[in-house]
Amino acid sequence: MNFNPSESSISDQCLTIFALADMYVRQRKADDGFRQFQYVAKEIDIRASVLLAEHVLEMAIKLRFLDDRRKLIEENDRNQIHVDTYREGAKGVLRGVRWALNKLMHQTDIDFSVREQGTVVLSSPETKRDNAIYIPSGLHKDRVVMVLVKGKQNGRSWDYQFSLAELLNEVLRVLFLSKNNL
After folding, report:
1. pTM for the complete prediction?
2. d(CA 165, CA 100)
3. Are 93 and 103 in contact (CB under 8 A)?
4. Rounded CA gap, 26 and 143, in Å?
5. What pLDDT tens digit does each residue of the chain (182 aa) get?
């Protein structure tokens, strides 16, 4: 039997990961001690990291397996995942989807954290196109889930941190483009 994971199941997994990450961020925003659903909040505190890790690793394995057979990533990757490198090189490098999937699959330790992030949008009404999503100019702040993976290769330790949202966005982009190129 020839079995390949479906692209739609990987897309569904990415959306599930986004929802879990959003829940993880929201739980950490509630710093006043009050939570309407205390037992749900307690389970999120206990299980969110484990669920995120399980789903992220499952998605990485499925997509790498599919890529090994169909070369989806190679054709559509644009190396746009910003990586904070702790060991093995300088900070601020850009890497691709396959690189991130490899690090996820070969990690010996995975952890998640929340980081505040700001993005400056420069736009004007003249640049708005029909059917485009318009984002007002200015500084937009948000909180994002960061993935920290650690491992060893050839006796040398490595640590990398990258945005979970950037990875998922690039994965969904690769899947979208691969569907349109069939």
Report:
1. 0.78
2. 12
3. no
4. 9
5. 667 788 889 999 999 999 999 888 877 665 555 567 778 777 877 888 899 999 999 999 999 998 888 888 877 787 877 776 666 555 567 788 888 999 999 999 999 988 887 777 776 555 555 555 667 788 878 888 999 999 988 888 888 888 899 899 889 988 888 876 55
